[in-house]
Amino acid sequence: QEQLVESGGGLVQTGGSLRLSCEASGRTFSTYAIGWFRQAPGREREFVATIVWSAGSTYYADSVKGRFTISSDNAKNTVHLQMNSVKPEDTAVYYCAAQLFNRGYYTLTQMHAYDYWGQGTQVTVSS
Fold first, then answer.
1. I need a labelling partner for 75 at 20 to 30 A (CA). Which of 34, 41, 103, 127 fits?
2. Residue 60, beta-bridge partner list
3. Across the chain, what does the average pLDDT equal?
């Protein structure tokens, strides 16, 4: 089993910055990728960004490209999501998730391809 714990959420003004962290524990040695998803009220959960654990390859949703940066600290089994130039539409609960096996790069943006999920952290952007 793998456990994921998110932290770093909170209230931030439009144009500000916030850094989310996702700490993984358990069977982290076999993790293929760690991703971030978000869910706003009344909307479906959507892909934000993901990083392939060993290769460091990163992928982003178009809505956050150029503003958000995903990175990993392998020694600490932690993945960060640096959120810059935030907008009110970034308001959501942010979840990190672990994909244990390489199921093809096209699955990295798909919720069903992730095996473990954290509890989520709330991000609220005020206008």
1. 103
2. 49
3. 94
Q: 13-22 pLDDT, tens per residue?
A: 999 999 999 9
pLDDT digits (tens, 9 = 90+) for 69-86: 999 988 888 999 999 999
Task: Determine the Cα–Cα distance for residues 47 and 122; give it in Å rounded to an integer.
Answer: 16
Q: Evaluate whether 31 touches 98 at the Cβ level (below 8 Å).
A: yes
For residue 118, name the pLDDT band (cuts at 50, 70, 90). very high
Q: Is 103 exposed, middle or buried (0-12, 13-18, 19+ CB in 10 A)?
A: middle
- Beta strands 46-52 and 58-60: pairing type? antiparallel
